[in-house]
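Researcher: Please predict.
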Amino acid sequence: MAPIRNAIILFVLISVSAPFVSAEGEEEDEKLSAYQALQQYDFPVGLLPQGVTGYELNRETGAFSVFLNGTCSFPIESYDLKYKSTIEGVISKGRITNLKGVSVKVLFFWVNIVELVRDSDEIEFSVGIASADFPIENFFESPQCGCGLDCNRLPGFVSSS
């Protein structure tokens, strides 16, 4: 009777643990890109520059880190933006708080962007004491380090399409 009972226990253990093993493998295969993760929280992909190498996200707390190859800066309209190689913050639906690693040049000074809030078709960027709203369509495309969204218009650059 013991061999049958042991066989049943083994079968039950294999049956119960098999879904967890395959789910773990599937989770790795289905890991979202940082850009896709942003979209899950109602933000457009263009908040991050091209070239993100990875990210970490705690879905329970919203704490995240995004990793770039190095620092990244570029002009957007009348602003200069700078991203450190690691960007951190806390994300929830339509809101990023405690942001670290992203700054904007205002006049002659670099100030940290500390919070982003999605409000319908606009995104509010806060530097703490002041904020500015921008249309969401400005962020449908990810900027490129060095040249932002105007890479094909810079003198000396040739497009090879």
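Model: DSSP finds two helices and nine strands in the chain.
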